[in-house]
Amino acid sequence: MAEFVQRALEQMLPELEDMQENNLFTRDEIRALVKKRTHYEYQLQRRVVRKIDFIRYIKHEMNLEAERNNRKRGSTKVVSKAFSRMLQAHPYRSEFWIMAAKWEFEDNKDIDNARILLSSRLKTDTSRRIMQLAIRRNSTSKSLWPEMRKRRQVLNISEPNQDDSGEMSDEFFANKIADVVYQNAVKAIPDDIEFRMSFIGIYKLFESTKQYRDAIYNSLLDDFPDQEASWHFFAEKEYDDHPDINALPVQMWDYYLSWYYEKVVLTSPTCLSKLEILLEIFEKAAAGKKLSENKYFLWIKILQKIRKDQDIPAVLEKYIRDFNSELQSWKFYLTLLLSYQEVYEEHDIENGFDKALKCLPVKTSIPIWQLRLEWYLTSKPKLVNTFLEKTINLSPEIAKPMQERYLEWTALNKSIRKVRKVYTNLIANSLVSIEFLCMCVDIEQQQAPPDISKLRKLYDLILSQIGESSAEYWIKYIKAEKAWGQPALANTIYWKALKTLQGEDNYDFIKSYALL
Q1: Helix (H, G, I), strand (E, B) or coil at 162
Q2: Residue 168 in 3-state DSSP?
Q3: Which of 137, 204, 315, 510 is the most buried (most CB within 10 A)?
Q4: In angstroms, rounded to a whole number, what is the distance separating the alpha carbons of residues 232 and 237?
Q5: Does the pTM of the predicted model rise above 0.70?
């Protein structure tokens, strides 16, 4: 280790002698410098070299170079060598290549060396993103323009963007250089949206670059029309440029509203003027039927938040005008409609339910019937019986679940005599569900005492339909007979169950019966 350090220090002797001969540094300063460099050289000779060791050494040499330039411009060999060694040790760290190129460009004033470093890294950089961004920033630096002017003058190349003195404007140089670099970068990295968008920021540093920024935004929609990120960035452009948003497609409205709400309104929640602008945008989008369902939800949420409940019914009508083919849309509409009953007349709510039932297929409309029943139960209880009697005579998809609600309501509000009349008529005149028959059993068993003759009829109906596969209801039937009927008949039910049940159900029945 000591040999390598000594050799490195010996290679510094010409530089140190030059410092002393030209009185750039005193003898004590040079001695301190040698001590410092010795320390850094030993760090670089360790078995495991750390990144921080290179960075500290380079920073020291850069500070030394700056001090020497203040006294006299001197050699830059040590800094260059340190960078070279660092790049050899970490050839795949793009940030180190950028650091080295930046030093060449800004401190050593060597544009060509900076470009060589960046180009060398580009050949092995699979992503190329960091390196392209570094080239872009360096290429648009104002310190580069005088050198370019000089080269163009030597080559006698003229450009149309010249002022009265024949000089090309700084603005022209900035825009033209940035555009060339952007085009080359996109060719190198054609499928990265965020990388492409990173050029927007550099264009915004200069004036009169709207045409270049527009070209980038348009390229997103041309090259990535189906990717969400493209539309999100395009929405940002629309906000920045304040265009005629009536020309935007539906998807663009969605992203535009999201952008405005998240980046403008939420960052200034107390600014009423921004909220008013957002509400105007909602109105425009709805008028053109370009508002998505989620944005209708957001619109209503905002109105609720700022306590403009009086405007919500109008928004609801626009919403259901645009989204009237899905059950969830109608449930949302009717639920909110019912929550603003003080605004609506009863016939308006009835019309809302009627519209929903006309638009939806019968097989999916049962939640609407049930929601209407809930409204009647709380707001129009005198009409509940008439409503339920109507529903149980509709198509089976509606009648079956509503039969259960009718029985439930009757049991809660009428006598057991009325309940028995209801379920007896329904059993006799329509095809009832197993769930309905089980409800009847539960109601009868809650009586004091239960009527075993009625329970026998109900259990016989249930088991005639599911007797081959339901050990549970055979056991319940036996329990009922033992509790309120004739225990001797329970044995008959037992043997009938054994003959009827099949396979595992038969085994489950025997096991359950043994536990009675």
Answers
A1: strand
A2: strand
A3: 315
A4: 9
A5: no
DSSP label at residue 160? S
**Residues 283, 363: Cα–Cα separation, whole Å:** 35
Residue 461 lies in a domain: yes
**Tokens found for residue 186:** 């996109």
Is 275 inside any structural domain?
no
Per residue, the 3-state secondary structure of 42-69, as one string, reads HHHCCCCCCHHHHHHHHHHHHHHHHHHH
Mark out the alpha helices in 224-271 (DSSP H runs).
228-241, 250-260
Which residue intervals of 244-362 are DSSP H helices? 250-260, 272-287, 293-305, 312-322, 327-339, 346-359
Q: What are the two backbone dihedrals, phi and then psi, of residue 162, each rounded to the nearest 5 degrees?
A: -120, 150
Q: How far apart are CA 116 and CA 415, in angstroms?
A: 97
> What are the φ and ψ backbone dihedral angles of 266, each rounded to 5 degrees?
-65, -25
Per-position pLDDT tens, the chain of length 516: 677 777 777 788 888 887 887 777 888 888 888 888 888 888 877 777 787 877 888 888 888 888 887 776 565 666 777 888 888 888 777 778 778 877 777 777 777 777 777 667 666 665 555 545 555 555 545 455 455 455 445 444 444 444 444 444 555 555 565 666 677 777 777 777 777 777 777 677 666 777 877 787 777 767 776 666 666 666 566 555 544 555 566 777 777 787 777 766 677 666 677 788 788 888 888 888 888 898 999 999 888 888 888 888 899 999 999 999 899 999 999 998 898 887 778 888 999 999 999 999 998 999 999 999 999 999 999 999 999 999 998 988 999 999 999 999 999 999 999 999 999 999 998 788 999 999 999 999 999 899 999 999 999 999 999 999 989 999 999 999 999 998 889 999 999 999 999 889 998 989 998 888
- Residue 445 falls within a domain, yes or no? yes
Domain count of the fold of the chain:
1
Report how far apart, in Å, the C-alpha atoms of 248 and of each of 52, 216, 231, 425, 500 are. 52, 18, 11, 60, 69
Residue 457 structural domain: 433-516
Let me know: does 376 contact 384? Beta carbons within 8 Å.
Answer: yes
Q: Is residue 451 part of a domain?
A: yes
